[in-house]
Amino acid sequence: MSAPLRSHWSLDPQVIFLNHGSFGACPTAVLQHQSELRARLESEPVRFLAREVEPLLDDARAALGAFVGADADDLAFMPNATTGVNTVLRGLRFQPGDELITTNNEYNASKNALDVAAAAMGAKVVVAKLPWPVPSPEAVVDAVMAQVTPRTRLLLIDHITSQTALVMPVAELVRRLREQGVETLVDGAHGPGMVPLALRELGAAYYTGNCHKWLCAPKGAAFLYVRRDLQAGLKPLVVSHGHNSPRTDRSRFRLDFDWMGTHDPTPFLCIPTALRVIGGLVPGGWPEVMASNREKVLTARRRLDARLGNASPLYPDAMVGSMVCVALPEGYPERPAPPLYLDPLHVRLFEERHIEVPVTPWPKAPQRHLRLSAQLYNTPADYEALGDALEALLR
Ligand SMILES: Cc1ncc(COP(=O)(O)O)c(C=O)c1O
Asked: Does the keyword Transferase apply (predicted)?
């Protein structure tokens, strides 16, 4: 992919940015549109927020629905995936002794939300331990299904895991669990824009996704999909005017979730812009964006595995989206296992080589890996620079 695409982002030219995964990065054209919307809002706040915003939200939801394969009526805007996960887990009612499954790869914040909800209702959290390295998607399905009992009520699973960057076999899990009467909450923080989505067909009870990561919308743009038959039972974390609105022209679900107090709706309103801008950067549109990002990290992984002397990748290509992990040799650092984001190698890569890439002890130190991201602005030279830096720093 040609370097000129980087000119669409305002990324620091001094930094080799290989961590789109953590917080995304928003193109300047999208930020420009957001500024215009904010100027319009502030020029007459009542006109904008009381009269104009509703059809704009409807348009944004329709564009998002078309992209993620869901009816717009089944989507609620969220500020982030963490709020989506909490909305579901704090809204559901469990009985003492109910079992809630997750995996040992689950995102820490989401696992915390599960622990708090379970503790409040006397439910039990069951953690399926996945093998590492991961031989196949089937190994994940087997590890999860082995934990199902007659008391199992819910699976909480990342669509794409954060620390290990695995594309999880969520379709197979949702299908198998539904056969046993168990619902699934998919934490798809990385899903939209990384992998094609068809939420209607997926059939998961709940799916929350970020638009500020791989869709490249401004920060604060996310959604929660709730399957139609479950909407009546779910309230937002913040109850507001929608609860007793006399309106009958839209569902209670939409009335409840569309207004959760005064906030800046411009991140949501920029979702169609982000879809258009990113999809317009390559001739093949979004399918090409996703495929080329994936091809880029797969190539980078092959190169780095070869340069680092790794005999085989940590998991099969079938589990790779726009991020991937590469094992690092043991023996560095000499210091005790550091907390996440403070790995000495991570710090040195940034401070000495100006490379932004996360290094994670996994499953625990001294085993470690780094997680590569690929977005349209990355070039093969970025990953070669990382390889050069690793060879020098690990020597
Ligand atoms: C799997 C997963 N879930 C949830 C989140 C949280 O996203 P946010 O901070 O936008 O809520 C992340 C962030 O990286 C993630 O990787």
From this structure: yes
